[in-house]
Specification:
Layout lengths: L3 H15 L9 E9 L4 E5 L12 H11 L5 E10 L12 H10 L6 E5 L5 E5 H4 L12
Parallel strand pairs: 3-4
Antiparallel strand pairs: 1-2, 1-3, 4-5
Bound molecules: tetrahydrodeoxyuridine.
């Protein structure tokens, strides 16, 4: 389990990363902060595209940055999302594609997903809670 100080830090870092969101089409800005098991933090924001489908979510940006730098063990991710220029009023839970990317690299029983409205208002769920009966690498070991 990660402690309260780390939870707060991850949320703050996700808010900071959200400032880099490139989202001119949806005006929905998302930031993420991914904690590796060795204690480093990788940030991500959503990056949209005029052709729409190449859009990358904040969570996957963080994962792909970390994996491309040799990290493969993760403990938690914080996510903050909401309309540009407005107060964050809802939790931005990760989309299905991002949950599947998490499934590739994380232990569903222990990986913690922190969705936050502020440093003091957040919910924590495991990947297993958000992606029950997920399909992963273990399914291809026969
Ligand atoms: N988005 C994320 O960054 N993460 C999610 O898990 C859900 C959606 C982004 C993608 C797009 O830029 C915008 O939010 C609206 O869907």
């Amino acid at each position: 389990m990660i402690d309260n100080d780390m939870i707060e830090k991850l949320i703050e870092v996700a808010f900071h990363a959200r400032q880099n969101s490139y989202s001119p089409y949806s005006d929905y800005q998302v930031g993420a902060a991914l904690l590796t098991e060795d204690g480093s933090i990788y940030t991500g924001c959503n990056i949209e595209n005029a052709a729409y489908s190449p859009t990358n979510c904040a969570e996957r940006t963080a994962f792909f940055k970390a994996v491309s730098e040799g990290k493969r063990q993760f403990s938690a991710i914080s996510i903050v999302g909401g309309a540009k220029g407005k107060e964050i009023v809802e939790y931005a839970n990760p989309c299905g594609v991002c949950r599947q990317v998490m499934m590739e690299f994380c232990n569903p029983q222990t990986f913690q997903i922190i969705v936050a409205k502020s440093v003091s208002e957040y919910e924590i769920k495991t990947l297993e809670e958000l992606l029950p009966n997920g399909f992963g690498a273990a399914n291809l070991q026969f």
